[in-house]
Amino acid sequence: MEKLNVAVADDNERMVEVLGQIIEEDADLKLVGKAHNGEELCNLIQEKEPDVVVLDIIMPKMDGLAVMEHFAHDSN
After folding, report:
1. Could you tell me which residues are beta bridge partners of residue 5?
2. Cα separation, 30 vs 27, whole angstroms
3. 3-38 b/e with 16+ CB inside 10 Å = b?
4. How far, CA to CA in Å, does 58 sit from each of 2, 11, 24, 47, 65?
5. Could you tell me where the DSSP H helices lie in the chain?
6. pLDDT value at position 50?
7. Minimal CA–CA distance to 56: which of 75, 70, 35?
8. Are strands 52-55 and 29-35 parallel, antiparallel or unpaired?
9. Are 38 and 67 in contact (CB under 8 A)?
């Protein structure tokens, strides 16, 4: 079974590190990137195409809901 590619986004640096560490320790998951705001996350998603994104709702530049809306409209 292939590993799930996971990206993490949160404006809290510590939370990103903790989540990243948990993902890296799981044999079924592969951490493909970390972002600290919505704009970084959009770029990361377009570049790495993760299977799963763990994201904070309240982030600078573009919140998590706006990121989800952007990609929901982009996929149609």
Report:
1. 30
2. 8
3. eebbbbbbbeeeebeebbeebeeeeebebbbbbbbb
4. 31, 8, 24, 22, 8
5. 13-25, 38-48, 64-74
6. 96
7. 35
8. unpaired
9. yes
| Residues 10-14, mean pLDDT to the nearest whole number | 95
CA distances from 45 to 1, 6, 49 (A): 22, 10, 5
Longest dimension (CA), the chain: 36
Residue corresponding to tokens 């959009």: 42
Residue 76: the pLDDT is 47
To the nearest 10°, the Cα dihedral for 71, 73, 74, 76? 130
Give kind and range of the element (H or E) at residue 33.
strand 29-35
What are the pLDDT digits (tens) for 25-67?
999 999 999 999 999 999 999 999 999 999 999 888 888 888 8
